[in-house]
Amino acid sequence: MSQLSSPETETPEATAPQIDEAREAVLAEVTARLGxxxxxxxIRPGDDLWIRVDRANWVAAAExxxxxxxRFFDFLSAIDWLPSPFGRDMDSxxxxxxxxxxxxxxxxxxxxxxxGETRFQLxxxxxxxxxxxxxxxxxxxxxxxxxxxxWSNVYAGANWHEREAREMFGFSFDGHPxxxxxxxxxxxxxxxxxxxxPLLARRVRPWPGIVDVEPMxxxxxxxxxxx
Amino acid sequence: MTAVSDPQSxxxxxxEAVDNRVNLDFETEGMTLNMGPQHPATxxxxxxxxxxxxxxVISAEPMCGxxxxxxxxxxxxxxxxxxxxxxxxxxxxxxxxxxxxxxxAAEKLMGVEAPPxxxxxxxxxxxxxxxxxxxxxxxxxxxxLGGMTALFYAFRDREWVLNQIESATGGRFHPxxxxxxxxxxxxxxxxxxxxxxxxxxxxxxCDEIEDLLVGNEIFQARTxxxxxxxxxxxxxxxxxxANLRASGVxxxxxRDNCPPGLVYDKADWKVWTHPDGDCFxxxxxxxxxxxxxxxxxxxxxxxxxxxxxxxxxxRIIKVPEGEAYVATENPLGEMGYYVVSKGDLVPFRxxxxxxxxxxxxxxxxxxxxxxxxxxxxxxGSLYFILGDIDR
Lengths: 227, 391
Hints:
The complex is a heterodimer of chains A (227) and B (391). Chain A is an alpha/beta fold and 227 residues long. Chain A has 5 helices and 7 strands; from the N terminus they run αββαβαβββαβα. In chain A, the strands form 2 sheets. Chain A has a 5-stranded mixed β-sheet. In chain A, β1 and β2 form a beta hairpin. The longest helix of chain A is centred in the N-terminal third of the chain and has 14 residues. The two termini of chain A are 33 Å apart. By secondary structure, chain B is α+β, with helices and mostly antiparallel strands. Helices cover 49% and strands 12% of the residues of chain B. In chain B, strands 1-2-3 form a 3-stranded antiparallel β-sheet. In chain B, β4 and β5 form a beta hairpin. The longest helix of chain B has 29 residues. Chain B is globular, with a radius of gyration of 21 Å. The chains are: A alpha/beta (227), B alpha+beta (391).
């Protein structure tokens, strides 16, 4: 499965040609049905398939997947690609502002597999029991309009997942039947899973875990990374 | 019944069937019944707001979040080994099983594979967690339906498997034993023999529960034909594990999509399904699963290869950039972690796909039209752990 071999064993897959015909075929079929709606894709051979669709085709992607036999709904969530302004180190940008130090250059925003252009990406996964494969769908949401169509008419299970994504990221889903908070109190302010939402416990008592990566006394630092 | 092949027509028919369950001919002034957050049938703090018409439930809406601990946020500020200790607490009855998919996802991104002995022990402990989890269900479900005896037998015999987990890992509830690239320790001396004994006790427990509870006339009256979930509904809600197999879907991640790092293909076992989709079917499938788990453990105990339990991994775990989703068949159903790594000590984002969240989201559908006592059967048989819903 993995492209890298473990340190002790040579895996034959490492030299095998990395072409996954089954997933290529699935990607071709989704592309044929959605046309220009597919704006990015990524295949890790023998493992997984990522398809990025544009926002207008988000619901259509679910319908296509279901029609193709991907009837099992796995999950729907989102990724905030903004590099966290709250670093685990003590010189995060916020701390620098407080202490009057010059601002640090923020890290570049790099989206993952299948690419992306916006900070927020929807992430959903469906699975076909007969094919034994899953598809991970992604969809860019522009910052000024965090709205997408609802999947809950196609996959009933998306109902709760969209409620969770709404309160955690601040999205809204058109046509959702019951758009109320699932976890958070109704008067909660903010969207906790956004990267710029501070984790207060960490701000009060920063990063106790840093001690774990210091080299043990008397042990040579193998990686040279024990900061 | 005519055969319908189109999934959407099936879904429409199912929705119609739900509406037909509600008898509005004798409409009375409605009543709202609040169940929980401290009800014994809610395994934690789930609250259900049920609107009733007489004895019938018109709508039931679960209110979650009383135990939301923000794990997805916390994973973004913890190193991979630290997260391992954290996610033990998601499904606290089968803790070791929570660790495995996360570790496997990290291993996949790092391109590390655990040595065979570690894979064997991992699978054995995984199945022991399943037994520890489901044996409590078998007792507790009886308690919820008014049969208290089963619970005591379950707690008595669950101790056998908990002792084994404790003597191997040091923890009864939160082992924190799995590591990227292998396991924390090898097995203690004499563990294999004592595990055989424990599994024999558990197999006897399954027989006992089958006589005592599942075969009981009152139990069957309370569960047969109650809370029927058709396969198409189960799939579109993402029900997994025994809840899905009880609806007749023959799908088990251990057999059908087993991630590398677990050795289910080395044992001879069977995936049980039940065509009925009712509360009884869910209990029955779980009972068979416990038996199969004990059989898997017994077979794997006899074939553990020798060798190290830890592959060579850097002492400081940095996971290369990439994304991976790994799911395993946990006691409650499919549990998966979607890990996004930026090549740092901490993951960039972890989406935790827990089984109970999807399993319980079907409650508004299945409870509509049920009678109040049946609501307990339905909730009990869907079997959720609150930590697994709220995360």
